[in-house]
Structure formats: structure tokens, C-alpha cells
Amino acid sequence: MEVTQPLVARAAMLIRRPPPDCYEAFVDPAITSKFWFSAGSDRLDAGRQVIWTWGMYGVSSTVDVKELVPGHRIVIDWDAGTEHASIVEWLFVPRAGGATFVDIRNHGFTGEPDKQVQQLVDSTDGFSLVVAGAKAWLEHGLKLRLVEDRHPDMLVEGWKPR
């Protein structure tokens, strides 16, 4: 198999909250942990490195924050320097009625073409759950546990959600 175009995983959805609220949900780990990871070491801030932890799976990732445009855009380098490194970009596009179109794009996959395609598929799957979970939390205050329930056989023994 030959990959001739850059691979970009994309997940997007309308969230009926204003862009600043949607943006804040992804930069503040106290909010993000309601629908994605279980803990973040700090808020996202340009030039800062943070650690995101998925306690339910016993894994963490290092994130280098490359760019923040409050209420509009987030760019991170995820797991820089590892075989899983990639760039993730969030766009927060204002829509009528105070809603936001949240558009998440992941690219820069490395390795053999088969591996890149698998990263693309996994990323699309994961970010689709993330944006759906964000919608449920931001619009209705519902904690759906989508990311946690995606791989129930991989949960850390004794894991208790908050």
C-alpha cells in the first residue's frame, strides 16, 4: 500500500454552547476530565508541556502546547519524539444561536503506511467519542463515560470513576 496524501483524522460536531465555553472545556482539565481523560497535570497554555492521564487504562501522554487562540483554536504536539507522535488541532467555529462547530483534526502520523492508516482509524474513532462526550457534558451536564466504555476489557482492575 502506498500513501500518497497526508493522512488527517477528523471528528467534528455542533455543540450548542458559545465558542469560549467549548474552548475552555478542552484547555481546563477539570472540565475535560468529565468527558475524555481522567486527569490533566495543568491547563493548556502556549509553550507549556502537560500530561494527560487515562487512569482507567493506566496510561498517560505528554502534550506540548504549540498554539492557543482563546475561543478559536488549539494546536498541540502529542507525544512528541515518540513513535506515536502527531499534531492535533481544534477549531471552534461560531454558529448561529450561540452554538459552536467543534472540528478536531489529527495529522502527522509516522511509520510504515499500514501503521499510519491504523493511527488514522484509531484517532478518528477516539476523537469522535471525545467530541460526542463534550457535547453531552456541555449541553446537558451528562457524563457518558464514552472513552472509558470503549475498551472495557482494558480497564485497570479496581478502577472507580469519579
From TrEMBL:
**Could you tell me which InterPro entries the record lists for this protein?**
ASHA1/2-like_C, START-like_dom_sf
Q: Which residues cross the membrane?
A: none
Instruction: Specify the species.
Output: Ollibium composti
Gene3D superfamilies, alphabetically? 3.30.530.20
Extract the Pfam families matched here. Answer: AHSA1
The protein's name:
Polyketide cyclase
Its organism's taxonomic lineage begins at: Bacteria, Pseudomonadati, Pseudomonadota, Alphaproteobacteria, Hyphomicrobiales
- Similarity-based family: Belongs to the AHA1 family.
All residue ranges annotated as the Activator of Hsp90 ATPase homologue 1/2-like C-terminal domain in the record: 18-119
